[in-house]
């Protein structure tokens, strides 16, 4: 009898193990522990001295280097003294840990000055990701960094290279986030303006001879603003992981004289294609392969130029340094000027070109259960300039949605349903709206769990004549299939017939081009509450976002560490 039970138990256990491998890939991971302290320090990333938010004294902050399946633990001490904080792990889906998504007002209360908060989550997919502040407009003060997740030992990618490098592109203002937020909220409206500099891996160069600069603030010989140098060995192939965390700017990135082969986007393998310059929008990540196959006796310029805005911001420059040349040796050439800022065709063409790699396609559902069309407009509300979705501008509540929904504190946010479309027949996307007034709401979209949702992002004219801006939209907690792009007004009867349902790329951030539309499809299969918003810092601050709720009832008890604000004060236990 014991033998019978033993043999059958072994068979049952073997079957369970086999079944678990078939349904959920099991990856044995290690625990990676980080101790971070964030604080303000005077920095000169572009030679101009101003306060920046650092992590352990650095901006960009320390990189998280991990393997698929690893558990990341970050003990984050907030030493900002007078500011709350939160950090979002951009591109990490937070499966079974929605409370550690790091979105203040959505998934957690902010981290108070002097407090230490512990984030703990699993990096379940290989790829290139980011982290950054998600409180107020702190991201543009320098609080950001990169996350690189590699495959487990013994597994390979569908491309080869000799070395792996990461850089982050960002834009940089000399005005503080407080000044900018006050201007955006004031009557009359004060726009943030164009950035003073573009930074490549935290380094740029502002012209210290600019009239009106206070003596001692700008020092062109400061080693902090020495151009970043990416050193390469001749004839070797490099995987360059590029992330953009600009607060405003869309960028064109190029390395003088070198082609780039795009192989990854937001953690998914791309059917490779070659570019001379890569268009990248805030919140996106790409991997490109670059072969160091040019004249090795010199260095080359790396350039990042603002596109989609008529900007006076100088191109960001770095050095593509061929060893053994000195990394500070300037190239003998003039830096590449980059494409025209208002040439939309190549940007649209790149978006269309990004397809999922053959052999790594995640087939999308062929139909959707719900379609939400989101008209992106600029509006006025009680004299303030705001951004709106279907004429509704988003306001964060004081009590985070995740806690309100789990603890039935429904009085803490608006319960009225949000519009799922606009007046398709009569709205002219090419003109300033006849009535620019809108309303505000803290309401959310409640999604039925495990259903398929289509989102159509429809761009339109701003409140300025003949002007439509590029908006990069980022979805928390999910990847989505990018099933279509189009120019003009989305036709809900004709355009879905042309969706790419064969090999669409999956992403977490995607642009909607001027006077165009972008169609996304995702499964509402990750229990939690998730933000979906424009990744331009000032636009989200001005209301350009929404929140999705799905499967809250499937979550267990929430950690009390995320509580302590709004109506959760009585629920918090230190």
UniProtKB/TrEMBL annotation:
Enzyme Commission number(s): 1.10.3.3
Quote the catalytic activity from the record.
Answer: 4 L-ascorbate + O2 = 4 monodehydro-L-ascorbate radical + 2 H2O
> Main subcellular localization, coarse class?
secreted
An annotated GO cellular component: extracellular region
Which GO molecular function annotation, any one, does this entry have?
A: metal ion binding
Location(s) in or outside the cell: Secreted
Give the Plastocyanin-like domain ranges. Answer: 40-150, 166-324, 428-551
- Cofactors required: Cu cation
Q: Does the keyword Glycoprotein apply?
A: yes
Task: Fetch the InterPro entries from UniProt.
Answer: Cu-oxidase-like_N, Cu-oxidase_2nd, Cu-oxidase_C, Cu-oxidase_fam, Cu_oxidase_CS, Cu_oxidase_Cu_BS, Cupredoxin, CuRO_3_AAO
Protein keywords: Copper, Disulfide bond, Glycoprotein, Metal-binding, Oxidoreductase, Repeat, Secreted
Q: How does it assemble?
A: Dimer.
Protein family (similarity comment): Belongs to the multicopper oxidase family.
What's the name of the protein? L-ascorbate oxidase
At the highest ranks, the source species' classification is: Eukaryota, Viridiplantae, Streptophyta, Embryophyta, Tracheophyta
């Amino acid at each position: 009898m014991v033998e019978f039970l033993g043999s059958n138990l072994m068979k049952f256990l073997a079957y369970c193990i086999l079944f678990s491998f078939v349904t959920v890939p099991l990856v044995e991971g290690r625990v990676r522990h980080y101790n971070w302290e964030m604080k303000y320090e005077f920095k000169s990333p572009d030679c101009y001295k101003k306060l920046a938010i650092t992590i352990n004294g650095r901006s960009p902050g320390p990189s998280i280097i991990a393997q698929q399946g690893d558990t990341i633990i970050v003990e984050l001490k907030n030493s900002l003294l007078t500011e709350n904080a939160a950090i979002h792990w951009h591109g990490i889906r937070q499966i079974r840990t929605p409370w550690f998504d790091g979105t203040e007002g959505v998934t957690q209360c902010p981290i108070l000055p002097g407090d230490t908060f512990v984030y703990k989550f699993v990096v379940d997919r290989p790829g290139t990701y980011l982290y950054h502040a998600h409180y107020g407009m702190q991201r543009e003060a320098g609080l950001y960094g990169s996350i690189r997740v590699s495959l487990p030992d013994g597994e390979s990618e569908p491309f080869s290279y000799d070395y792996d490098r990461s850089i982050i592109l960002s834009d940089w203002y000399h005005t503080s986030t407080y000044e900018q937020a006050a201007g955006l909220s004031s009557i009359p409206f004060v726009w943030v303006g164009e950035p003073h500099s573009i930074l490549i891996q935290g380094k740029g160069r502002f012209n210290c001879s600019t009239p009106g600069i206070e003596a001692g603030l700008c020092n062109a010989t400061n080693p902090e603003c020495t151009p970043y140098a990416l050193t390469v060995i001749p004839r070797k192939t490099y995987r360059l992981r590029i992330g953009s965390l600009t607060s405003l700017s869309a960028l064109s990135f190029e390395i003088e004289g070198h082609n780039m082969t795009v192989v990854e986007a937001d953690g998914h393998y791309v059917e490779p294609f070659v570019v001379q310059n890569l268009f990248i929008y805030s919140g996106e990540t790409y991997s490109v392969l670059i072969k160091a196959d040019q004249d090795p006796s010199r260095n080359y310029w790396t350039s990042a130029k603002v596109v989609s805005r008529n900007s006076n911001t100088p191109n960001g420059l770095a050095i593509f340094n061929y060893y053994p040349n000195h990394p500070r040796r300037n190239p003998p050439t003039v830096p590449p000027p980059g494409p025209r800022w208002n040439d939309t065709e190549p940007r649209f063409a790149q978006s269309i070109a990004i397809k999922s790699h053959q052999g790594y396609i995640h087939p999308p559902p062929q139909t959707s259960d719900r379609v939400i069309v989101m008209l992106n407009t600029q509006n006025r509300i009680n004299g303030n300039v705001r951004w709106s979705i279907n004429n509704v501008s988003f306001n964060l509540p004081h009590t985070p949605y995740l806690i309100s929904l789990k603890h039935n504190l429904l009085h803490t946010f608006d319960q009225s349903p949000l519009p799922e479309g606009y007046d398709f027949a009569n709205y002219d996307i090419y003109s300033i709206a006849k009535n620019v007034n809108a309303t505000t709401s803290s309401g959310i979209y409640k999604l039925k769990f495990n259903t398929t949702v289509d989102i159509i992002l429809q761009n339109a004219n701003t409140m300025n004549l003949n002007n439509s801006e590029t908006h990069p939209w980022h979805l928390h907690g999910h990847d989505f299939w990018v099933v279509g792009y189009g120019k003009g007004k989305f036709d809900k009867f004709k355009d879905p017939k042309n969706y790419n349902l064969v090999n669409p790329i999956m992403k977490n951030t995607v642009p909607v081009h001027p006077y165009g539309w972008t169609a996304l499809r995702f499964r509402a299969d990750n229990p939690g509450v998730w933000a979906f918003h424009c990744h331009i810092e000032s636009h989200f601050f001005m209301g350009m976002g929404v929140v999705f709720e799905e499967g809250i009832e499937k979550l267990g008890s929430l950690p009390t560490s995320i509580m302590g604000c709004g109506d959760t004060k009585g629920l918090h236990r230190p």
